[in-house]
Amino acid sequence: MQSSLSQVKLKTHNFAYSNPCNLSSRTQLKHVVFERHDRETLSPQAKNLFNSRTIFESDSEQEWLLENVHSTMISIKINDDSYEINSNYVLSDSQRFILVLHGFDKTESWTTWTKTIQPLSQRCSYSVIFVDLPGFGRSSGRDLNQASWKRNGPEIIIAILSSFHIENPVNILATCVDPILGGSATTVRTINRYPAWFRDRNLIFTNSVIGDFGESKVGDFEKNLTQFNIHIIVHWFPDEDHTHHCVAYKRWNKLRQSGFRHVQLIDFDPVKQTAQLVCPEVRVLDIGRCSFKHKAIVYQLSEEYIQQIINTLSAGNGS
User: Fold this and answer.
1) What CATH class has 5-314?
2) pLDDT for 169-204, tens place per residue?
3) Cβ-defined contacts of 245-251 (< 8 Å, 24+)
4) Where do the structural domains in the chain lie, given as residue ranges?
């Protein structure tokens, strides 16, 4: 989805806030505003995906998704940089929110974690937000590695959250396949700028690869986790090369070995774990980018793994 972003003018000036418990709190960057444009009906892309028998074999699951999921576009302006973020969401009566972020492989979009929507909502009353990050799916962005995306990533995340008028800290479920720009990497940098958004929450990172923690100095990240009682659970496939050479894996491993209680690493069993498997591709017009413009990719998740995600999120203080 291409747009003349430099010409974006928001009708209203809703400022993103840095602390969900203080809606008048301002972001570190001076001018971060948003406007949410809810669709009257589910987007054609989401509707076509949910109607796929390849992915959703159960009539009850299909009917529930079609009835409860809503589509929106969130316009965000950060100083001179503008973004339009495609989002799908389901709201519950509780104030328990989870933001789900995809990785930065060319196949990734909001669709990857869709098998978790109904379980998260029905089993533990989460309001669930799925987004296409800039450069993916139907969100704006000319390519996958915009310079402004990394720079403004934390502000984009809290503008998305602010657009739902959230008044409590949130949980995160994120993937990271790019060491700089994935969902997990962006969350880490958001923690360093706006930790109050995640106070007393459990965050789940899948196979997290992070090359830049976005700190003023090394150790600030761990201090924020401790001060705000944030717990990160990293699900990963053990890989000796990554542990020795990847910045994030080395740091995660060091924290595990030191007994740092705010980061927990859970090794995937490559034989039993299905978290990295995907369902057969589904043709959905205009849902993605480039060679995947008409292809939807959905993670194939075992019931055991979905329940593990739910148990981990629910174990967080105040969740």
Assistant:
1) alpha beta
2) 999 999 876 444 578 888 999 999 999 999 999 999
3) 246/179, 246/209, 246/211, 247/179, 247/210, 247/211, 247/212, 248/176, 248/179, 248/185, 248/208, 248/209, 248/210, 248/211, 248/213, 249/209, 251/210, 251/213
4) 5-314
